[in-house]
Amino acid sequence: VCYGTDAAAFARKQRAADVGGIEVAVAALQAHPQVTGVQQSGCRALFNVCVGSDAAARARRQRAVTAGATETAVGAMQAHPGDETIQRQGQRLRDLA
């Protein structure tokens, strides 16, 4: 839903953030730390919502940091050290902060 770099994608990213999507994704990651699929998809979703270089993207990143996304990504990476997808997605998410 939030993948892409065109104007429509950025509008979808903002709508997702506006309705609490960032906080829901962080909560799902925190609630299911041992479920690989949740960790993979959650980190990917947060990255997709937060990526961008405009002021709105910076605000979404700050919102994600405030919601605990950075710590949650680190926790996912520590809980799944052998999962390449979680390592990659978690690092990408951390790099945005």
Structural features, described:
With 97 residues, the chain is mainly alpha-helical. The chain is built from 6 helices and no strands.
Tell me the Rg in angstroms.
12 Å
Biggest β-sheet strands, sense, barrel: none
User: What is the end-to-end distance?
Assistant: 22 Å
State mean pLDDT (0 to 100 scale).
93
In short:
This protein is mainly α and 97 residues long. The chain contains 6 helices and no strands.
Topology of this structure?
Layout: H1 7-18, H2 21-31, H3 36-50, H4 55-67, H5 69-79, H6 84-96
Notable features of this structure?
single chain; 97 residues; mainly alpha
